[in-house]
Amino acid sequence: MNQLTLYSRLGCHLCEDMEALLPPYLENTAISFEIVYIDKNDVLEQQYGSLVPVLKAGDKEICHYFLDIKALQLYISEGGNPLN
């Protein structure tokens, strides 16, 4: 099973929007997602602080700020393999 990671902040409306929009696109796939809150994590805060929400597949970023549906659909169509 493949997994996406959504880097997020508590109380971030853009983060909440992406979190709400993501599940319907992953229905009927073997792809799940986890939410990682960057608050109180200095390393993640420095890496993603101004970009959240950030959706990643492994080390490859799919999108940030807003859900890029085309990039997500490309990822899904490639069988959930990290984007090149």
Could you explain the architecture of this structure?
The chain is an alpha+beta fold and 84 residues long. The protein has one domain (2-77): Glutaredoxin (3-Layer(aba) Sandwich), CATH 3.40.30.10. 36% of the residues lie in helices and 27% in strands. The protein contains 3 helices and 4 strands. The chain has helices spanning 13-26, 42-48, 69-77, and strands spanning 2-8, 31-37, 54-57, 60-64. The protein has a 4-stranded mixed sheet with strand order 2-1-3-4, with helices on one face. It starts with a strand and ends in a 7-residue tail after the last helix.
Radius of gyration: 12 Å
Question: Could you say what the CATH architecture is?
Answer: 3-Layer(aba) Sandwich
Q: How many strands appear in the DSSP assignment?
A: 4
Content of β-strand:
25-35%
Number of domains: 1
Q: Could you give the distance between the termini?
A: 19 Å
Structural class, from secondary structure content? alpha+beta
Helix content percent band: 25-40%
The CATH superfamily name is: Glutaredoxin
The biggest sheet, with number of strands, parallel, antiparallel or mixed sense and barrel status, is: 4 strands, mixed
Mean pLDDT, to the nearest integer, reads 92
What is the CATH topology descriptor? Glutaredoxin
CATH class: Alpha Beta
Order of helices and strands: EHEHEEH
Silhouette:
globular
